[in-house]
Amino acid sequence: MLKTLLLVTLLGSRVKAAITQPQPKEWPCPVATEIYPCVCTTDADLNLYLDCSDVNSNTQLQDVFTKTTFPFPNFYTLTIIPSIPKNQLTALTAGIFGSVTFHKIFISNTYISTIEEETLVNCHDTLEIFDLNDNILAYFPFETLELFYVLRELRLANNQLATLPDLKSGILWYLDLSGNAGLSLTASTFAGLPLASVIHLRNMGLGTTTDPSTIVPPDVFAANPDLRDLDMSNNVIEGILQEATFNPPFQSLHELNLNHNRISDIHPLAITGLANGASVQLMSNKIPVLDVANWGPLLSQLTSDNALDLRDNPLLCGCDLYWLANDATLMKKIHNETTCSTGGLVYDLPLEWFTEHCPGGPVLIQ
């Protein structure tokens, strides 16, 4: 009996020791020395993270993924954001990531200029966010977008992209192409993105009438029923906004940012499809007058106070504003810090002056 008890106790101790014995330090990551200079970490939710910010070259990056045994090849994020870019890390070629997959990729501040079509073939079913802001990308395989079945966000701001084909993805909702001055738009550029909700096109040199390739064509957003946030600030959009320039098919648009352009006026139907509570930002443009025929339809769509931001425009504040001065409800929709070119606040203009000096009375919105 005593021998049996001792045997049971001994076996129990060994089982307990086997259960509580710590795993190798790197587990579930690969051996640290094998993936150096990349660093693998985990979190309490059992996600794997890989930071390769210290990689020096294309070859070194590929060696990490093709010469290492990964116990678990499915990573949540890959990060390559060096403090100083390495001049031998220039391309993401086919096979560079071996069989490893990612849900999110963040790469910026590098000299990477190209990504091949097959680079992320293993991530077609996993990649949700692809952030390549602030590199020197001259080429991106846009034609592969529809092969990424869960890709929700594509961020390509501040690169050197030269061509933009018609985009196709049934899932993409966030797109940022800002800062790529070589791109031009056609009426069908975004037609293949039915779920696009956020499109940012800042600082791209779009809109100058002296270069037809930069013109923003009518109906370019006409096939985007979910478009909520459109940012086209800091371009060179000039002159009169033409009919159907911004016209998502349903009343979905919550924010339209056209700050820091050269817009002087708008067609009555230039901006439509605004949602309840929407705002339109036209700060720092070249707008001198707000006649009711052109601006009345826009203000009629807006429902919130301060919804139309016209600060820093050369507003003359003449009889063209009689209709606004005569309607306190409409006037409240103009940002309350909007000023005339002479410095006075628009909302503070005395109705009596217009009544005395503008014959015929205020023109009403039709």
Automatic annotation (TrEMBL):
Spans traversing the lipid bilayer: none
Pfam families assigned: LRR_1
Per its UniProt record, what SMART domains does this chain match? LRR_TYP
| Keyword field | Leucine-rich repeat, Repeat, Signal
- The reply on keyword Repeat is yes
**InterPro entries under this entry?**
Leu-rich_rpt, Leu-rich_rpt_typical-subtyp, LRR_dom_sf, Wnt_signaling_inhibitor
Extract the signal peptide range: 1-17
> Would the keyword Signal turn up in this protein's UniProt record?
yes
In terms of SUPFAM superfamilies, this protein maps to: L domain-like
- Report the protein name in the record: Oplophorus-luciferin 2-monooxygenase non-catalytic subunit
PANTHER family this protein is in?
LP06937P
Q: Which GO terms describe its cellular component?
A: membrane
